TrEMBL record:
Comp. bias intervals (Low complexity): 42-54
Domain spans labelled Trichome birefringence-like C-terminal: 119-406
Pfam families according to UniProt: PC-Esterase, PMR5N
Protein name in UniProt: Trichome birefringence-like N-terminal domain-containing protein
Organism of this sequence: Trapa natans (Water chestnut)
Domain Trichome birefringence-like N-terminal: from-to ranges: 64-118
A GO CC annotation given for this chain: Golgi apparatus
Molecular functions (GO terms): O-acetyltransferase activity
Family under the similarity heading: Belongs to the PC-esterase family. TBL subfamily.
Protein's cellular compartments: Membrane
Signal peptide residues on this chain, from the entry's feature table: none
């Protein structure tokens, strides 16, 4: 029996000596698999995909939630029921389901989960019940219309008694008769009034500097499409930005932006980014002066574009079918890279500077939206080029409205307690 026991002892010793090596090999294999997964661009969402996009800073106890920090969670079984592609207000180019975009139904299956709090599902009936006799105005470029459409379709699904009615200057508007709740969209590209300018319109100072034509932008005069809106709306949601970095429209040589203040040209002429600062300064002052007593004012941060391989007129496209990973976002949007979509964070720098210390509430949707390269109409947008700027509806702008309503509820609750 002694030789058998000796063999068993040697076998056990040999087995124990191999354990550290086997453990090391197992660890290395797992590390390599995870590294390959992280570097790969996601194409098809897994059954329990979570993209952790949170920032390092936390929200102090008792403070308002930072809805912009969190994670995108994919739920393959989620059935979007707020409205469907039959909502007639959806602009054809944004109706990705009707346009047969390959991932159109997946777009709305990604749910935003804030890191430090809950984002309650938007209850449209409860919202309309608590906002009877209210007027809500979206003021800005077509990205604010994108958001307006999402809200309209959500409310229309549960309250069909709707009358088309446009407040002064509005591009479109509707009143939900049961609740006397009006929502409207006022289109304005720059917030300030602007129009064509040429030497025959008269401005000796500009002519003497060699300017023959361009666009006159009156930094202290609101665009007529929304000048009356602060008198009417109880809630105002502003945006601007995309048109300020648009060389196809405001060519710095052939058709530059020429800024005027108090009816006179700003001499020496200034660049568009300085012009944006002046417009934001004057427009926020105008709104504060003209707004209804007790109105709530939001400014939405910049909506990111996702052109890859060039800008919209250079063959740029957005073929992604799943959200980007964090390192891909930085590659696409980091200011130091000065890429095609750099305007996103540049515009936000100007917004934060202009609104600091004001009573405007920031509706921060930029960072969470930077990951959603999958949510644009892309080739189904009905344009000659890929639409990597606007968003599929249903889609991301529904999340924007979820955050808007959550912030609005937070503000109103605090007011009621004070």
């Amino acid at each position: 029996m002694a030789p058998v026991a000796a063999r068993d002892h040697r076998a056990r010793s040999s087995s124990h000596s191999l354990l550290p090596i086997l453990s090391l090999l197992c660890f290395v294999s797992i590390f390599l698999v995870l590294s390959l997964f992280r570097r790969a661009s996601p194409t098809t969402p897994s059954l329990s995909t979570t993209l952790q996009l949170s920032r390092n800073s936390g929200t102090p106890s008792g403070a308002s939630c930072d809805y912009s920090a969190g994670s995108w969670i994919y739920d393959p079984n989620y059935e979007f029921g707020r409205y469907d592609s039959s909502c007639k207000e959806i602009f054809k180019g944004w109706n990705c389901i009707a346009g047969n975009k390959s991932n159109a139904r997946d777009v709305a299956k990604w749910r935003w989960k804030p890191q430090f709090c809950n984002l309650s599902p938007f209850n449209p009936i409860r919202f309309m019940e608590s906002h009877r006799d209210f007027n809500i105005g979206f003021i800005g470029d077509s990205l604010n219309r994108n958001m307006f459409v999402s809200l309209f379709c959500t409310l229309k699904r549960v309250s069909g008694e709707v009358k088309k009615w446009r407040p002064v200057g509005a591009d479109r508007g509707y009143t939900f008769l049961k609740y006397n709740l009006t929502i409207a969209y006022h289109r304005t590209n720059l917030l300030a009034r602007y129009g064509r300018w040429s030497t025959n319109t008269g401005s000796g100072d500009l002519e003497s500097l060699g300017y023959k034509e361009g666009f006159r932008v009156d930094v202290d005069v609101p665009d007529g499409t929304w000048a009356e809106a602060p008198h009417f709306h109880d809630v105002l949601i502003f945006n601007t930005g995309h048109w300020w970095w648009a060389p196809s429209k405001f060519d710095p040589i052939k058709s530059p932006m020429l800024f005027f203040e108090k009816g006179h040209p700003v001499i020496p002429p200034i660049s568009p980014d300085i012009g944006l600062d002046l417009v934001l300064k004057h427009m926020t002052k105008y709104v504060n002066k003209e707004a209804k007593l007790g109105s709530i004012k939001f400014f939405r941060t910049q909506s990111p574009r996702h052109f890859e391989g060039g800008d919209w007129d250079q063959g740029g496209s957005c073929p992604r079918s799943s959200p980007l990973l964090p390192d891909q976002v930085e590659e696409l949007f980091a200011i130091e890279n000065n890429g095609t979509n750099v305007e996103t964070r540049l515009v936000n720098q100007h917004l934060h500077m202009a609104l600091k210390g004001s009573d405007f509430h920031m509706l921060d949707v930029t960072h969470l939206s930077e990951f959603r390269a999958d949510a644009h109409p892309s080739t189904t947008g009905g344009k000659k080029h890929d639409d990597c700027m606007h968003w599929c509806v249903p889609g991301l702008t529904d999340t924007w409205n979820d955050i808007l309503i959550a912030l609005l509820n937070d503000i109103e609750t605090k007011r009621s307690r004070s």
